[in-house]
Protein 1
Amino acid sequence: MEVRLEDVWFSYDGRRYVLRSVNVEFKGRGLHVVMGPNGSGKTTLLKIVSLIYKPTRGSVVVDGRGYWDLGPGERDSIRQHIVYVHDKPIILRGDVWYNVSLGLRLKGSDSYDYLEELVERYGVSELLRSSSRSLSAGQRRLISIIRALALKPRVLVLDEPFNHLDSSRVRMLVEDLTSMAGSSLVVVATHYMVRELMGSATRLYELVDGSLREQG
Ligand SMILES: Nc1ncnc2c1ncn2[C@@H]1O[C@H](COP(=O)(O)OP(=O)(O)O)[C@@H](O)[C@H]1O
Ligand SMILES: [Mg+2]
């Protein structure tokens, strides 16, 4: 799946633009990393890429068609291939297994092998029957990321996925995102550069005051 932003502007209040003429093309595969300081517009940009926010001006073109000009049915069929992982992990009441398997359950999937592998590898197995309320910030983030990875979506968008993760989990995550980027489009926003990402990113972008620039 290919997502292209054409002259995208975004304003929350109709006065100040937090994205200013963003032009970028995310091809069907690869690991795209958007860096930038707090408040530079990364979360806003990612929500536009994920088809959650409609740009104030400009177009979001998905596989050659202007997404916001499509009817609700066509939008839904595109939207279902895109998974967005919020910077604040969304964790529901219930235990950890309930939370990590939620995505697959909603999708009606019965292939849990990859999820089980992820749970094992990220060291979450011991926690599966624990209440989600007892989790640390890093554990909450891992749960939200594992839930998304398990879906193997065509487009995976992650906002600040490295916050609160220890260095070995960061390394694992970069490896998993890199391998997923072999067949999917993966877009990551981060306010600090994770060293492991430098070598793995297909493309690096910097967002400064709402303007996006590709890094050489
Ligand atoms: N819901 C909102 N309402 C109004 N302003 C917002 C909202 N969300 C973000 N902003 C503003 O938009 C700008 C960009 O924010 P954001 O996209 O969250 O940046 P980043 O993720 O890079 O920190 C900031 O100035 C922020 O204050
Ligand atoms: Mg943000």
Protein 2
Amino acid sequence: MNKIRAVRNLRICSKDCLCLYVCPTGATDTETGQIDFSKCIGCGACSKACPSGAISMVPYQYPKQQLKDELVIAKLNKLIQSKAEQEQMAEHIYNSSNNNIEKQLAKAFIRANRLMSEDLYRESGFMLPQSKNTKDFLESLLEQANEEILKKDIEKLIKLLDFNE
Ligand code: SF4
Ligand code: SF4
């Protein structure tokens, strides 16, 4: 099996199609906009050619997660909590203010806090594809999913990800 494969981020893809011209296997030319894993040989040509930085080369198998000290995780969680509270406060200002500058500042504050929370979550071991947290999260989604198509997608993800924590 290939060690790495290409993944396209559709949100930043500017659709100039350079990756289509350089791909030796046609893996980038799909109707869904996703790169076809079964055709990708991991050569990296698309990633080098992409002017938007929309293609990343990712490993098939992730290394084992570095486990963190309980104290570090507890402190990080506390910090995440405070970021979430600040985000809520900024949201309150955003919703209750009629002043444009205040609103813009509040919006920037909401975004900055959300980004910091996400970074902190990653730092504390959440949201890594190979972590037990991700597996637990996907399984909880599966329990709540009430549409068959959604269930199938979640089951597929659970099968695909190599949880190794
Ligand atoms: S080269 Fe990059 S920006 Fe262009 S279509 Fe491919 S992924 Fe999108
Ligand atoms: S890594 Fe190579 S084979 Fe895979 S999609 Fe990109 S250009 Fe095609």
